[in-house]
Design goal:
Elements (H helix, E strand, L loop, with lengths): L10 H16 L4 H16 L38 H7 L10
Helix pairs in contact: 1-2
Amino acid sequence: MPRGDKSKYTDKQKRQAEKIEEGYKKRGASAKEAESRAWATVNKQSGGGKKSGSGRTRSASNGKKSTSKKSTSTTKKSSSGKKSASATRKSNPGTKRSTSK
């Protein structure tokens, strides 16, 4: 399947892309740019075209929506990494704080 092939998309996704593309054209985007943005929007909303393979979706019986198993990159800071302002003040009691009145 060549890059950019739209055969794996559902009819609904194709209709959505068409409507979105028209909207971008109305706002002044070129035809090529409008098509590119429209498909990017459809991919963002639906997760792309139809996927093959087993284990892609969850069963309907548990009532949960199908999701991909991509991990989001959340970085955890160590407990000693960054102190809160109040913790810093408590450990440095001799420093003066300016107050505005």
